[in-house]
Amino acid sequence: MRKFGLIGFPLSHSFSKKYFSDKFEKEGIADCQYELYPLESIEQFPELIASAPDLVGLNVTIPYKEQVIPYLDELDEKAAAIGAVNTITIRNGKLKGYNTDYHGFLNSLTQWVGANPMPEKALILGTGGASKAVKASLEDSGIDYQFVSRSPEEGQLCYEDLNTTAHQHLATSTLIINTTPLGTHPNVDQLPDLPYDQLTQNHFLFDLVYNPLVTAFMQKGIDAKCWVKNGLEMLHGQAEKAWEIWNS
Question: Which of 18, 23, 65, 225 is catalytic?
């Protein structure tokens, strides 16, 4: 039996177990199992690896996409450049990290924009592990970006910067990507603090949140007749890329 799983904390609203369990059943993959491994601390990670010799692959979610890196033997080139890992292979006792969020986001963004001109500037809301994959995707697409954070570092914006009339960041940045967990079930009323009255029909609002399918952030975009997208297709894309890596 080949075992796969997900590490993170908490995992009560995990997408991965159902996705892969359904996939195994639907595609007649009988020798595989997918489990959840909630770790209260990343320091429990070596213990998990030692206690589960059948594990051949893991997914990584909040808050361990960056914290897990020191525990790995090797990083894929793209994961090293991004600085975050969401997929791990375990072969002959060696752990190698990959980032399939990058592939999931880039493919979803490209298909969503479609025949429209790709936005030239973007705002990335949040600075966690997922934001790093988004940043790499935008760089490879030739899209300028700025990070927006509640605790901005040098070169980053704070939400106050967006809400002051002195700066018209939303006027020039027509792609806005929410990489924060704001709006995730059950806190469905939460949303990033933006001047939503500045949104136009030319704005693209991409929310990495997928539960609910229409977030409060997306609803603001719908009200302003923007293009909106949730993170479900990205999630499917990153999961399929992980499966491809585990079986390569």
Answer: 65
Residue 21: other Cβ atoms inside 10 A: 14
| Phi/psi-derived region of residue 76, left when phi > 0, alpha when psi is between -120 and 50, beta in every other case | beta
pLDDT of residue 165: 67
What pLDDT, in 10s, does the model give residues 182-231? 999 899 999 999 999 999 999 999 999 999 999 999 999 999 999 999 99
- Show the tokens assigned to 18: 């159902």
Phi, psi of 138 (to 5 degrees): -65, -40
Strand residues in 84-153 grouped as ranges (E): 87-91, 94-98, 121-125, 144-148
Known catalytic membership, residue 132: no
Instruction: CATH number for 2-99: choose from 3.30.2010.30, 3.30.450.40, 1.20.1300.10, 3.40.50.10860.
Output: 3.40.50.10860
Phi, psi of 247 (to 5 degrees): -105, 10
Q: What is the pLDDT of residues 80-95, one digit of tens each?
A: 999 999 999 999 999 9
- What pLDDT does 166 receive? 63
Cα distance between residue 11 and residue 119, in whole Å: 34
